[in-house]
């Protein structure tokens, strides 16, 4: 940690981002190893010394705030706590739009319905869902393709329609 804080000081203004803070700084009373206790103690010491280090902001992220050592939550260390909750239906819809952008979707795919049915999903869950759906589509189509021959028109995810003008995209259709 000390090197990170020194680099931040030398390159100030700086931001140090610590992801999964609960795994780096768990409650000292609940850890069994000395290494974990030392890591927490060093982080606390470095945070306490920030006032003399210039323009350095430290941001920590966790989804298990109650597992963080309580000393980190005292004033002067991490001063503000911002809770980012689970997205609502509209938020999930927007996340679905991001993770399906560029994916050829069948006409019967309704992202709003999927958003309604994915209550409790966060961005990472929705990303995994979109990737899994894409992989299932590939697994369905791949056996139908002879890799020694050109891909048939019907299996091609997108291509140019020469009859409707340049760069007109044709929607993906699966072959039964």
From TrEMBL:
Where's the ATPase AAA-type core domain? 2-85
Membrane: present as a keyword of the record? no
Looking at the record, the residues that make up the AAA ATPase AAA+ lid domain are 108-147
Q: Does the keyword Nucleotide-binding apply?
A: yes
The record's keywords, sorted A to Z, are: ATP-binding, Nucleotide-binding
Output the PANTHER family linked to this UniProt entry: AAA-FAMILY ATPASE, NUCLEAR VALOSIN-CONTAINING PROTEIN-LIKE
Q: Which PROSITE patterns match?
A: AAA (PS00674)
GO molecular function per UniProt? ATP binding; ATP hydrolysis activity
Descriptive protein name: ATPase AAA-type core domain-containing protein
């Amino acid at each position: 940690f000390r090197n990170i804080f020194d680099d931040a000081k030398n390159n100030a203004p700086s931001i140090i981002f610590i992801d999964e803070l609960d795994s780096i700084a768990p409650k000292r009373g609940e850890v069994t190893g000395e290494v974990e206790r030392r890591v927490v103690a060093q982080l606390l010491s470095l945070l306490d010394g920030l006032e003399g280090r210039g323009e350095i902001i430290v941001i920590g992220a966790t989804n298990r705030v109650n597992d963080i050592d309580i000393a980190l939550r005292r004033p002067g260390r991490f001063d503000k706590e911002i809770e980012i909750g689970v997205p609502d239906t509209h938020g999930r819809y927007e996340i679905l739009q991001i993770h399906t952008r560029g994916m050829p979707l069948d006409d019967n795919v309704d992202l709003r319905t999927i958003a309604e049915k994915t209550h409790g999903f966060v961005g990472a869950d929705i990303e995994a869902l979109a990737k899994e759906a894409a992989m299932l589509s590939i697994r369905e189509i791949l056996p139908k393709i002879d890799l020694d021959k050109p891909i048939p028109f019907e299996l091609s995810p997108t291509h140019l329609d020469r009859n409707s003008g340049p760069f007109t995209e044709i929607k993906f259709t699966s072959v039964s």
